[in-house]
Amino acid sequence: xxxxxxxxxxxxxxxxxxxxxxxxxxxxxxxxxxxxxxxxxxxxxxxxxxxxxxxxxxxxxxxxxxxxxxxxxxxxxxxxxxxxxxxxxxxxxxxxxxxxxxxxxxxxxxxxxxxxxxxxxxxxxxxxxxxxxxxxxxxxxxxxxxxxxxxxxxxxxxxxxxxxxxxxxxxxxxxxxxxxxxxxxxxxxxxxxxxxxxxxxxxxxxxxxxxxxxxxxxxxxxxxxxxxxxxxxxxxxxxxxxxxx
Length: 245
Ligand SMILES: O=C(CO)COP(=O)(O)O
Known about the structure:
Largest sheet: 8 strands, parallel, barrel
Number of helices: 10
Number of domains: 1
Strand order of the largest sheet: 1-2-3-4-5-6-7-8
Bound molecules: 1,3-dihydroxyacetonephosphate
Strand content: 15-25%
CATH superfamily: Aldolase class I
CATH architecture: Alpha-Beta Barrel
CATH class: Alpha Beta
Shape: globular
Number of strands: 8
Helix content: 25-40%
CATH topology: TIM Barrel
Distance between the termini: 10 Å
């Protein structure tokens, strides 16, 4: 399966900065083996749609759980689709933590995305205390199960252990594979043979120098990258590192 390198800018870059980033990428980017896609702040999506190099996909970081109507401040999946958005991150740990998103809300968002032809990237992963108790596998699988309630197979899963996000502490490639394999097993139970075609990403302090070993693992099909997505040089480094993967 082709690796997906999903770049989560989080709340960084104005539309002008996004334009400069896209211009620099266009100048230097050579399509490699990985599929590249930018998970952009909503206000930068139109700019990126007009300025990203061919072959680089477009994503959003959140979507409403509702179709349309009186939900002030929300952005619907239909609006994202109309801008050419292919992916949307749902259930990122920062949204679960700071915005109280439950598994049920995450599943509702994923379903809205799919109903509009946008592929949800459903995020799951444990905090440090859960890992220290050795409960990271059952915890993550339960979160996954709730977050996929009623969600179809056109989905990407991102395993992001919260303790590895923005901390410089990367899970080892073996840690990533342990969870990716467990997630694959849960997907098989839910979706049968189609589970083999679902990408499972790892996220948490991924950089040019560790991405290849993590993505070389059999059940890891790419990465969801925060900090290292902001500089074009790092993105090119990760893209290159995946050339032979
Ligand atoms: O949360 C992440 C991507 O969604 C990971 O962030 P960092 O790559 O900055 O650790």
